[in-house]
Amino acid sequence: MSKVLYEKDVKTEVLKEKKIAIIGYGSQGHAHALNLRESGYEVVVGLRPGNSQVKAEKDGFTVLSVAEAVKQSDVVMILLPDELQTAVYKESIEENLEAGNAIAFAHGFNIHFNQIVPPSNVDVFLVAPKGPGHLVRRTYEEGAGVPALYGVFQDVSGEATELALAYAQGIGAARAGILETSFQEETETDLFGEQAVLCGGLTSLVKAGFETLTEAGYQPEVAYFECLHEMKLIVDLLYEGGLENMRYSISDTAQWGDFVSGPRIINDETKQRMKEILSEVQSGAFAKGWISENQANRPQFTAINAKENQHPIEKVGKELRELMPFVKQPLQTDQKKQKD
Ligand code: NDP
Ligand code: MG
Ligand code: MG
Fold it and tell me: Cofactor comment in the record (predicted)?
């Protein structure tokens, strides 16, 4: 098994002597900034004027322009949306870095796909929490943490690994366990996971099941419960104890159906397509397409999103959830980033 590190394995002095700039104050940014400060690190926040700026100031941070925050700091954690990082980096970060500084990321995309090419005199590391920012914050407040991956792309000071580990400790991840990775592995597995399984695979499975039942004349309400609502129970059981734990809780009839029908849904052909998706992630074809979609102002993204929001499962779901006050209301926009 790969080596998982905990608080006892981490030296914090090297980062305690430095000033950290957190660039962005969204899902990850607010959690990193608050947790690091409470762990005893010195933090400033770099932002443009706007909602996040107001929020960070309310939380008691010194908020500077991105350029100024970078100038004043030794370690710069870039927590902007991935598709905006390159532009902000070129405009406000690059020229303000000094030899011996470190830049850091919570996802390897822009470094791995050469969108950001760091100068050769700075450290470059990754601390990628395996959970959304609001969980990183909440678990920290509860005295626990979300596990994280860490990795080093460039080690100029000889201290990059220590910095990454201390940073992971500061956000609470060392309480839960930190595991070494590379920018390549983190980026490729993250993209594959969200496309094939967590987001893409799951939404397509749910919709196909719902459509099959409603096209056969069953009530959309019943189809919604069966194909979407009950998903949470199953996923909670998987999370708590893996496949066996989930199968222990469901009926033997459900378990028999799982055994005989599951492999007919996800079969060798599906796996073949997963391999194609993985190849496109590895070759950079997916990244290239997403970058040009953004450069063109997201025509397909916007069109598909509008169409998806009109799917009948969304309409019936909205009505049903209003009748179920125990189901939490959708998260506020700034809390919405649950997916990575
Ligand atoms: P969000 O979209 O939640 O937050 C982005 C932040 O960047 C906001 O505070 C926004 O402020 C600010 N911002 C946007 N544009 C600019 C700009 N031009 N100049 C200055 N500030 C700007 O991002 P996430 O936290 O989701 O993602 C950050 C990083 O973390 C990404 O690399 C992502 O892949 C990674 N990550 C995210 C996870 C998640 O669960 N969300 C999990 C693990 C990693 P404003 O209010 O002004 O728009
Ligand atoms: Mg059932
Ligand atoms: Mg992701």
Answer: Binds 2 magnesium ions per subunit.
- How many angstroms does the Cα of residue 262 sit away from the middle of ligand 1? 37
Q: Any alpha helices (H) in 180-251, and if so which ranges? A: 183-192, 200-215, 220-224, 231-249
**Distance (Å) from CA 1 to ligand 3 centroid:** 24
Q: Are residues 100 and 215 in the same domain?
A: no
Same domain, 24 and 133: yes
In short, whether 148's Cβ falls inside 6 Å of ligand 1 is no
| Same domain, residue pair 34 and 112 | yes
CA of 224 to the centre of ligand 1 (A): 32
**Which of 118, 152, 181 is the endpoint of a domain?**
181
Tokens 């179920």, residue? 324
User: Which tokens in the block code for residue 334?
Assistant: 């700034």
Classify residue 130: in a domain, yes or no.
yes
250 assigned to some structural domain: no
50 lines ligand 1 (CB under 6 A): yes
Indicate whether 140 and 174 sit together in one domain: yes
Same structural domain for residues 113 and 215? no
67: domain CATH number is: 3.40.50.720
Task: Give tens-digit pLDDT for 253-269.
Answer: 999 999 999 999 999 99
Q: Amino acid identity, residue 122?
A: V
Total domain count for the chain?
2
| The dihedral sign for the CA sequence 283, 285, 288, 290 | negative
84 CB near ligand 1 (under 6 Å): yes
| Cβ 51 under 6 angstroms from ligand 1 | yes
Question: Which residues carry out catalysis?
Answer: 107
Residue 300's domain comprises 191-229+267-335
pTM (2 d.p.): 0.93
Is ipTM beyond 0.95? yes
Q: What is the DSSP letter of 122?
A: S
Q: How far apart are CA 30 and CA 311, in angstroms?
A: 33
Query: What pLDDT shows up at residue 326?
Result: 84
25 is in an annotated binding site: yes
Would you state the pLDDT for residue 92? 98
Closest by CA to 53, choosing from 28, 62, 137, is 62
List the residue whose alpha carbon is closest to atom 17 of ligand 1. Answer: 48
Mutate to test the pocket of ligand 1, among 47, 194, 333 (most ligand atoms within 8 A of CB): 47
Please tell me whether 194 is known to bind a ligand.
yes
124-169 pLDDT tens trace: 999 999 999 999 999 999 999 999 999 999 999 999 999 999 999 9
